[in-house]
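Progress note, sequence design subtask.
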C-alpha cells in the first residue's frame, strides 16, 4: 500500500543532514541504513552505501532513481544457482567446450608462426 499523498514521501532526515555536510560531486560513500527512505532530487550525484543486512552496497544515485526507495537497489539475498544433476552436467559440458576452443585457437596461432 502506498503512502498517503498528504503525508508526502518518507525521506530520512539523517540522510539529508549527511548530504548537507558533503560538497557537491564528492565521490566518498555515505553509509545509510534507511532502506525505506525515498530517493529525493537533492540526492542525485552522491554515492550511498545501502545496508543489505550484512554489508553496505554502493549505490550511485541518478535522475532515473528519484522516487524509488534505497532498498530496491540493494538486494538482501544472494542467488547462487539452481542445482541438480542436470545442471552440473550442463556446466561441465560448457567448460569442456570452452577448453577445446581455447586449445584450437592456441594451435592455430602456433601454426601461423
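Output:
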Amino acid at each position: 500500500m502506498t503512502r498517503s499523498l498528504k503525508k508526502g514521501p518518507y525521506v530520512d532526515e539523517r540522510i539529508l543532514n549527511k548530504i548537507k555536510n558533503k560538497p557537491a560531486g564528492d565521490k566518498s560513500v555515505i553509509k545509510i541504513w534507511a532502506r525505506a527512505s525515498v530517493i529525493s532530487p537533492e540526492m542525485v550525484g552522491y554515492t550511498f552505501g545501502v545496508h543489505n543486512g550484512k554489508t553496505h552496497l554502493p549505490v550511485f544515485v541518478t535522475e532515473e532513481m528519484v522516487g524509488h526507495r534505497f532498498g530496491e537497489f540493494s538486494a538482501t539475498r544472494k542467488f547462487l544457482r539452481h542445482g541438480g544433476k542436470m545442471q552440473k552436467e550442463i556446466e561441465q559440458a560448457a567448460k569442456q567446450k570452452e577448453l577445446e576452443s581455447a586449445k584450437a585457437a592456441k594451435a592455430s596461432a602456433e601454426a601461423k608462426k
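DSSP finds two helices and three strands in the chain. Work on this subtask will continue into the next period as scheduled.
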